[in-house]
Each structure stands twice: as structure tokens, then as C-alpha cells.
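Aim 2, interim progress. The first record below pairs a target sequence with its C-alpha cells.
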Amino acid sequence: MTAPPAVGAVSFDIDDTLIDYSASVPHSLRELFGPEADPGLWQALIDALYPRYLAGGLTHEAYLRTRLAAMLTALGRPVPGAAGLDELERRRRTAAESRLRLYPDVPGCLAALREAGLPLALLSNADGPRQRRRLDVVGLTGLFDAIVISGESGVAKPDPAAFGLVRARLGVDHVVHVGDDPAADARGALGAGFLPVLVDRAGRTRAVPPGVLRVGDLRAVPALLEHVGRGV
């Protein structure tokens, strides 16, 4: 592809955009809780607690412990102390990381963008050391010009300041952001002056806001950016 003049760089979300993180969750829960594990309940706990962590109401350590304690309580099991919860989380994380995989559309997309000479960045809402370990596991470390992780930077999507860090570290103005979350990624990028591309592999998002582009596969991104560059 030829680098589109209207696009100076591309940033990507990580979990469920590049790494199929959600597929690893049921396995890790079964390893920890057995056949009674309920991925739906686990996701409900994440939805309830993660915004508190992002807003600074919980430390990352407290978020992990509170989530596990709530799951154990819901299953009618005893809740251990802090050290016991930390050990359970270590086991859950190890089981999840053993199943982490890149989506098959990732390597071709990144290679095409690199061939076009576009700087690449990562922008993720996550704990820094854990997210960097995941990048190591799937072989993404070293492929990006900038990595911004909320646990390290102190700001999280959809805050425009998080996107601003990407722009500053890359030193370019016109950035495309690709992610799977309609709120944190698409609307966040739009509010920060980025061009948002929502990756919707399962076709779950019925409508996107004006100004947000949507793809079902990352292999469509390089061609899409060519159209953007030509003003098509």
C-alpha cells in the first residue's frame, strides 16, 4: 500500500483488538473455579469494578482482589485473606496467558502498515507490567514506536489526554486509532481528534457515531486508510 497523506500514524488497542483475550477467560475461570465457573458473572464483575479502577477509586491490586472475592462469594465459597487472593489471581493469570493468541488478521495488517512507512502505537487501559507481559507472550513487543498503558501513564481511554500521549510520543498530528470498544476506543478517539476505526469482528455493534469507520477484519484497515488518504 501507499501511505495515505492524510494519515500520519496508527494506534491500536490491545485486548480483543490485537490479542484474543476474551477467548482465554473461560479457560482461566475453569482452572480456578471448576465447572461452576460463570464467565457471564465474571464479566459483570469487570463491568462493575473496572470503571472504579480507571477512575482511581481502586488500586489495581484492590480491583483484582475485590473481583475475586466477589466471584467466590457468588459461588458460595470462602474468601481467603489478601495473600490467598493474590495466589488465586496468579493462578488465574497464568492459565489465561497460556491461551493468549493473536487474531489471525493481525500480522498482515501490521506488515502492510509498516510497509507503508506508518508509525505504529499501542494505547491500552490496563496494568503496565501485566500488559507488557502479554505483549511478550504473543510476540508483539518491539513492533511499535510508542506504547501508552493507563497503569503507567495515569490516564485512560476515553480521556483525550490518553490519546494526546500517543500523538506526543509519535510526533504526528493525524492519527488513526483502531479498537474494539465503541465507547473507550471509538468515541474516545473521536473526541481526541483521532480518526476512529471500530473493529467489530462479531458484528455486534448495530450503529456507530458519525465519523467512526467500522471494519470486520483488520486486514481491511490498510485499504481503508488508502481511501481516507485519497478523500474517497
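The second target in this work package is listed in the same format:
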Amino acid sequence: MFALKLVQDQLIMVDIKAIRLMINLNSNVVNVFKLLLILYLQNGLLSPVPAVSSAMKEKYLEWPYKTGGYKRARKTFTSLHEHRPFTKTFFMKMIEIEKEQETPKMSNLRDYYERALREFGSSDEDLWMEYIKEKLGSHGNPENCGKLHWRAVKTLEGESVEHFTTKYTLLQTGHM
């Protein structure tokens, strides 16, 4: 019997005999592989090494989308977005998944961008620019770009403010 530690000290018990029984009874290697993959990804989420944990979150978000679709990916994102550490890529992956939908919801995109900005908004001017470009796009509200610009200038720190202002000016003048 193996015990894998999960987020918030929950335990999942994996009985090796049960896995062997599944293989013998069903001969369904795909289901066993899926189970082992899930356990592998969950174990990676708990890694004490932030780089490993973050990378596993990105992969763990991709897998349910590829195997179960958008709703499953959104559910997985919701369960993972509360547990640090994060990477910008984690949030951008969910934004990408939302954009791939036939009719992406701006409210969901806004939620994902806002969550990413809470984590990286003080230092990542490119994230602010991507959000502004999204607002300028077909699904957004261009009238809110001024408010986003103001928030970015107030939130960004150091040289990031200057870089952002330059990029925003280039965007406004059509050079970006």
C-alpha cells in the first residue's frame, strides 16, 4: 500500500494489489496508465522544489483539457489556482484554453488575467500589455483600456513602469 501526500495534507491510498487486479481483470492498460499518470502528476505537484511543482501544474492543466475537454480543464484550474507557487505560463495556458473555445467568455478571460496580475502584476509589463490587447480585441471592451493603463502604472515597480509606458505608447500609435 502506497500513500501519496496531496495538497492540504490529504492522503490518497494506492493499493498495488488493486492496480494489478485491474490489469488482470480488464486487461485495460490505458486505464491503468491514466491512473498512474494522475498519481505521477499529483505527486509532482507536492514537490518541495518550486520549479518542479510549477511545471507539474502546467502539465496537470493540459492533460485534463486534452482528455476531458474545457470543463474538466476549468475544474482543474480552479482546484490548482489556490496553491502556490505559480508561473505566468500556468495562467497563460488557461487563457489559451479559454480562447480556443468556440465562444470564449470575456468574464473568464478577465478572471484569469486578474489572477495572473495579482501574482505578477508588479513586475511583468508584458502581462499588462497582453491584457490590454485582449480588451482591444473582438471580445473585449476597449473603453476599459485607460483604466487598465492607470492600474498598470500604479502597480508596476521600477523600470517596469517605463518599459510599460513605452510599449503602451507604441500600441496606441499603431507601432506595436
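The chain has a mean pLDDT of 82. This observation will shape the mutagenesis plan for the next reporting period.
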